[in-house]
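input
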Amino acid sequence: MTERLEFRLGIIGGLGPLASADFYRKLTELTPARVDTDHLPLVLLSIPQLPDRTEAILSGSDAVLKQLLVAVRMLDSLGVESIAMPCNTAHHWFERLAAETSADLVHIVDSVVEEMGHSFTGRRVAVLATPGTLSSGFYQDRLLAAGYEVCVPSAADFQQDVNRAIADVKAGDLASAGVALGNALAACRQAGIEAAILACTELSVMSREVDGAGLAIFDSNSALAMACLRRLGYVAADVRPVVRRRAG
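output
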């Protein structure tokens, strides 16, 4: 009889690959482990050939959903307890996916709202995200339900800078991504916004380099990682994420 490997967490990754690597690194760093065996047994499915999520949302295509369902069922077959998707835009299909799995599908926005509730006392929040995520509205719905005011800077280039930063990370040009993200955050400050959510996991890749300069910054990858660790009993409910910044 072949021994079966046991995985507690399943990750639907590759959306994009660098964002998934960032999530796995943060999950590892946030785990209170002393030796290898203290870490969470998990499986990462990397599916970078998944169709573009924003294009699918804006066109009404089900092509992404069909492939995400295949991924969820594959993780179910491995017996995982929880599933994480380190891709904000893919959460457009969250309810459909959650209905098809016996695992606990962890919502990235609920994870962000939980972190905000522990450390943020303001109200005015900007969501830095893809056009698909913004069009879907799930961030706005959950933030408004939690009592926050979702604000959009009036600067003409704000969304273009966000889009450019995301595209630059996907292309591996982190220096250019940092410039574009910095411009977007400056527009948030000028608009009197109190917090900015890195609501695309490509932007999460830049979280260690971000200079909030008066803005509270919430990283969706870090929040999702902490939510997974809490649900699976690896950290206590009142422990806050501390992701180390890179030495500059």
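quick obs: Residues 36 and 77 are 25 Å apart (CA to CA).
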